[in-house]
Amino acid sequence: MAAGGLALLMIVLFFIFSIIIPFWVYSDAQQNSSYSAVLWALVAFFGGLLGLLLYLLIGRDRTGGRGGNHGGNDGWNDNERSNEPDLRR
User: Fold this and answer.
1) CB hemisphere CA count around 53 (13 angstroms)
2) Among 11, 18, 47, 60, which lies 20 to 30 A Cα-Cα from 79?
3) What is the pLDDT of residues 28-83, one digit of tens each?
4) Where are the domains of the chain?
5) Are 38 and 11 in contact (CB under 8 A)?
6) Distance (Å) of CA 18 to CA 48, 55, 65, 70
7) Are 40 and 24 in contact (CB under 8 A)?
8) First-residue to last-residue Cα distance in the chain
9) Of 75 and 3, the one with more pLDDT
10) Measured between alpha carbons, how far is residue 42 from residues 23, 27, 78, 79 in Å?
11) Sign of dihedral through CA atoms 58, 63, 68, 70?
């Protein structure tokens, strides 16, 4: 009986984490990734722990926020948002 209870507990935990992990990845990717949060949530859902590991290794921007150097702002055009003159001429 104890083995059956343990197996049931493992199955329940598996399903709980299968739902919690993609939701966490989605909310974290909205804040910390310049890539699509929905795409990363799908990777975590279908990939399980491997999908979570992929997100943690390559999905999060090292700068910690949207607009990382994935085709976005590379820092060279910041003078448009500031009052400082452009001295690169």
Assistant:
1) 4
2) 60
3) 999 999 999 999 999 999 999 999 999 999 999 876 555 544 444 445 555 455 66
4) 18-65
5) no
6) 7, 15, 25, 29
7) no
8) 78
9) 3
10) 10, 12, 34, 37
11) negative
